[in-house]
Amino acid sequence: MDPAHPRPAGAPSRVALTPAAALLLRRLGEEHGPLMFHQSGGCCDGSSPMCFPRGEFRTGGSDVLLAELAVAGLEEPVGFWMSADQFTYWRHTHLTVDVVPGRGGGFSLEAPEGVRFLIRSRLLTDEEARQAVAGVRPDGE
Asked: Name one Pfam family in it (predicted).
């Protein structure tokens, strides 16, 4: 399995969008073109996923692609990347991207809108964990 793509074929999605997040992504996509998220887990809004024009944030071997999110109205999916170190801690969770009022402290595209993306998480169910987590390691083992 490719460690940069930890979702085995047929496995449940690790990331979802609320309707509000999808609506905001449509608006941002119309203005900025194809989009991507990156979740670093570091300081400065580390719990908030950062939204960028695709390719503006450079991913590398220390990042994993958790999902390619289909958004109605956007031609291309929105990639959701996470640092491998953060994935080690969150590998047993399902993430939902939501939108809340307020401004984050980062450089995410939604900042001028007066809102920010936020992650809501839950533990994977036992079945999801068996399907999605077994054998998936960001270090490729």
From this structure: DUF779
